[in-house]
Amino acid sequence: MSSQTTTMPPQTQDKQPGRETEMHPRPDYEPRYPGSGRLKGKVALITGGDSGIGRAVAVLFAREGADVAIVYLNEGEDAQETKRLVEREGRQCLTIAGDVCEPGFARAAVERTLKQFGRLDVLVNNAAEQHPQRDIQDITPEQLDRTFRTNIFGYFYVTQAALPHLGKGAAIINTTSVTAYRGSPELLDYSATKGAIVAFTRSLAKKLAEQGIRVNGVAPGPIWTPLIPSTFPADKVAKFGADTPLKRPGQPNEVAPSYLFLACEDSSYVTGSVLHPNGGDPTES
Questions:
Q1: pTM
Q2: Among the options 29, 155, 190, 259, which is catalytic?
């Protein structure tokens, strides 16, 4: 009867992207341990870095010594809070507002990062959106186009812009999802994009191996981020994550260490792989 378990207070937000400032309780982004310099002197660009998993990754990277650029759509208040948190760790944070599904913006975001920091070592493709529909007939051409443009086209555009500036030892980390492995009957287009990201990750890893650039992915399960209350009705939010073996949603700071591992030299012999912080949900890897 885990599907009846209440894991979060019922709540909704009326538009995407969601706002972390409107969530209760707030997602837990705080790193759990002191830094050890694993990203000292590095620069990371994180799309969707204003809140949720992106925020937790930005703060953890900063604690480990990296300067960070975060890309966000229009969640200015969340982005400024992430900037404050990164700077609290003693690192610099560049905030860049715009839409990753536009190739021109993707190029501009990379150029601004290089102008600010002079280098780029880690790219985290993380921006995403999802729009549940009960019937495939209800997925409009406009929704299908938008979901693919944000979730997979944006990964291509930002990667294309960043790649000429990534050298040997650089890392690209793509956010996919547990839905790419187990499916989701009400998130058909979203799940399809996440499956595409897995294939993109594995293919790009083979392409870039000879350049010494590693490409990996992270496939989170149900994580408490602004995407959840901005996507689902209050009664479903209240049960979010209850159907996992751990019977709760994960927190962003439980996912961020996967990105740190893949970004730093700890994973120097890992490429084309996907990590699965998903609360024990069985997947086919």
A1: 0.94
A2: 190
